[in-house]
Amino acid sequence: MTDERDTTADTDGSHAKHEDDPDGARTAESRAGVAGDGSPPEESLGIAIPEAHVGAFVAQAFEDVERSTEWTEAVDAAIPADARGAWQSLSTRDQVVELLTLADEFDAKATALLEEIPLDRDGLDDDRYERVSDAKRLRRNADILRDGIAAGYAEGRVSDDELVAAVEAFGFDTATIAEREDALDAVSSAYNVEFRPYGGTLMTETEIETESGAPDEFEVM
What we know:
Strand order of the largest sheet: 1-2
Structural class: mainly alpha
Largest sheet: 2 strands, antiparallel
Number of domains: 1
Radius of gyration: 17 Å
Shape: elongated
Strand content: under 5%
Oligomer: single chain
Order of helices and strands: EHEHHHHHHH
């Protein structure tokens, strides 16, 4: 259900954050990082976040600091024109869940492609090279969608309650991204594959040679 659009703007700025009342607190893992089965994610931060700031915390986690995707760009890229009527009928919470679901599907497909590549060959043949290229496109698509969600929050299209409710309903787990990055790192180490480092704050370690230049665009797979 994707439609190719340009969801990448300049890379000089990052999404602005809401100004919130700091009263009240809850943990990041209880509101923003709970897996679908109710257990904390593999890399849960487990730090106390003022309740009024939980939405901002989640949005910052989704934001890719090297992109400046707008909410409308993410929606245009992910939702084809013939599905816009159904999309508009969804609540904002459900729209965010839909984008998170698509991003998660992209991540899972990217990881599967990378894990199918043997790491003990002399190099990448045409088939393996194509798999790496497809995985990198899927990875990029997922990151663009999550960056678009962060933009929706910064633009005031998605409220604190809507964002946190969507993350809880979806059961977002940072382990999915960690697995994707581990699989890509393994292929990169084996075949010296260059790629743009993950720009979000959900992962912090990058010890690989990376591609230069601006972030690429969302691509239909």
